Amino acid sequence: MGKVNFTIDGKEIQAEKGVTILQAARQENIYIPILCDHPALPPEGACRICLVEIEGQRALHPACTYPISEGMAVSTNTPRIRAARKFNLELLISDHPLDCMTCEAAGNCLLQDLAYEYDVTEDRYEGTKHHYSVNDPNPFIQVDRNKCILCRRCVRACREVNGVEAISVFYRGFSAYIGFGADSSMDNSPCEFCGSCVAVCPTGALWPKLSLGEGRPWQVDRIQTTCPYCGVGCQLILEVKDNKIIKVDSAWDGPSNHGWTCVKGRFGYDFVHHPDRLDKPRVRKYLLDGKKKPAAEKRKPEIEGDPWQWVEVDWETALGITADKMLQIRDDHGSESMGFLTSAKCLNEENYLMNKLARQVIGTNSLDHCARL
């Protein structure tokens, strides 16, 4: 599209024609504060915090939506700009709970950071305030509209990224609020609970219910890992406190998911610490003793010493017994007596290895897979 030459705070910059002032500034690591913009979402221009001054222009303009042009001179931090940003922040704070001491998002709240930066210490404007109920009955996400700043990040994430359009803004002016479906609850809307709205929310308006009261942002270790649920390879950030996963965030640099997840990836981590989870392999006692399979009608695995009792072993022992039994069945009944099922959600490499095991080791072509496995 061609290059455009312009300046930001006196620094000469060259950027692609058509990009916004904010995008060009980010490419040059020039800081412009903003609440409503997110690099993964289309610009909205809703918060008016990113206002900048353009030489020759009477009004201030939002950097997130204003395109660059040849010879433009932009200022990002003049007294006029700072005064306008502070005024807009004060308007937001005037209808926002000042409960940072107990808010789950404290320490990870963009509004809190900007209030600190612009010295917004109190509510200067008295008047009517919203008092929404925090009672959305869905099992995954706490919805606190009192902390919503109507940046519409969640609306754009649901519409532009997930393509569901389960979230929208109802009414206008002071009566405007974020709602779901036909102005109902989350679980009574098209919401798929992918958690994209939670990932982009700059305040504590949307928060995972499993994480409530579990820890503050500065108390956790953040560990990047691969989601265990399927073979896509989505990258996740685990927030771990006291060796326990308390929250899952998006990994925006994940090559396969670019920060987005499904409901299982973001909210299905409680199995890790479930008391019924097996963390070691188990085999029947009769297999460990090398005895024949006892009669099924006499099984009493709850009794100590019963041949059907489950016994914890190491992986080498468990895999060795499995391999020996598979070879025994092949030798006694022929290779066609066995079949293999794999999953379309496994990695390609895992399915390839299962193919080699079935065809080259066991000698059968009875191999299938299904996405439902």
Could you walk me through the main structural features you see in this protein, from its secondary elements to its overall organization?
The protein is an alpha+beta fold and 373 residues long. It contains 9 helices and 16 strands. It has helices at 21-27, 79-93, 110-117, 153-161, 196-200, 263-267, 285-289, 315-333, 348-362; strands at 3-8, 11-16, 51-54, 61-62, 73-75, 141-143, 167-170, 177-180, 206-208, 221-226, 235-241, 244-250, 282-284, 310-312, 340-343, 367-370. The model has no long low-confidence stretch (mean pLDDT 93).
Task: Report the biggest beta sheet as strand number plus sense, adding barrel if it closes.
Answer: 5 strands, mixed
Low-confidence stretches: none
Question: What is the number of strand segments?
Answer: 16
How would you name the oligomeric state of the polypeptide chains in this document?
single chain
Beta-strand percent range: 15-25%
Strand order of the largest sheet: 2-1-5-3-4
Q: What structural class is derived from the secondary structure elements?
A: alpha+beta
Terminal CA distance: 47 Å
Mean pLDDT: 93
Radius of gyration: 28 Å
Helix and strand element order: EEHEEEHHEHEEHEEEEHEHEHEHE
Number of helical elements? 9
Helix content: 10-25%
**Overall 3D form:** elongated
